[in-house]
Amino acid sequence: LPHGDCALSRLLRRLLAARRSLEICLFAFSSPQLGRAVRLLHGRGVRVRVVTDAQYMGLRGSQIGLLRQAGIQVRHDQEGGYMHHKFAVVDGRVLITGSLNWTTQAIQNNRENVLVVEDAEYVKPFLDEFERIWEEYNPANYRFFP
Amino acid sequence: LPHGDCALSRLLRRLLAARRSLEICLFAFSSPQLGRAVRLLHGRGVRVRVVTDAQYMGLRGSQIGLLRQAGIQVRHDQEGGYMHHKFAVVDGRVLITGSLNWTTQAIQNNRENVLVVEDAEYVKPFLDEFERIWEEYNPANYRFFP
């Protein structure tokens, strides 16, 4: 549970190890360094998919617009509640999860935790949840006139 | 990653299994059911310690006042950043962690995750962090005139 630059560089190292796929499921994503890393992976041909919260993604500083601009697939909730997860899965086998949103405020100033887990027993429910949310938030299912 | 009442009853079951100690480290704690469970454990003689966020604990619906009224030790941060953790440790060996704050909104309406982990390798860093925060937030160390 390291702080600040140490937490950021550990997280970057884990992400940049991705070779095939990266699933990201984040309430808040505004860290420029992490945004850059994700765009870099996309540029390298890693399949990146992002799920985020509709209320947060439009706030100033959000990285979501830049990710979309780079051609990365992003989906968001259509519900009253928050999409409050904060996890990522690298290459289908490394789960990064905890209390940390990917924001500079959280990385620099908050008390946070990040768990990195490689046991399939823990990783699978998160991957399953990601696929469930990915389908549920498919734009083809949006209901503009409910 | 179950929702609503199912998530709540699983969490309650894990908490109510406590026999000796319960450490709680939560950004937001406003669920009346979980508040009742924690007071019940305290009444049974389980050593309960709570760490929370100063900005959130005074909000309407917070359970922190009721916990203190019941005689439970609560400590909070004195920093600008958030105490953003959301974890609990039962009897020093079961870690409950994830994205979930203990609020009715989160339990009923949000997409959240809760991990229950018993491997000492994962539990120990959280227990260590709790003890570190517990000492750091000791009221004897408050600086009213910094």
From TrEMBL, chains A, B:
Gene3D superfamilies attached to this UniProt entry: Endonuclease Chain A
GO cellular component terms listed in the entry, alphabetical order: mitochondrion
Keyword Hydrolase: yes
Keyword ATP-binding tagged: no
Alphabetized UniProt keyword annotations: Hydrolase, Lipid degradation, Lipid metabolism, Meiosis
Domain of life: Eukaryota
GO molecular function list: RNA endonuclease activity producing 5'-phosphomonoesters, hydrolytic mechanism
Known catalytic reactions: a cardiolipin + H2O = a 1,2-diacyl-sn-glycero-3-phospho-(1'-sn-glycerol) + a 1,2-diacyl-sn-glycero-3-phosphate + H(+)
Domain PLD phosphodiesterase: 79-106
Pfam families: PLDc_2 (PF13091)
Protein family membership: Belongs to the phospholipase D family. MitoPLD/Zucchini subfamily.
The name this protein goes by in its record: Mitochondrial cardiolipin hydrolase
Gene: Pld6
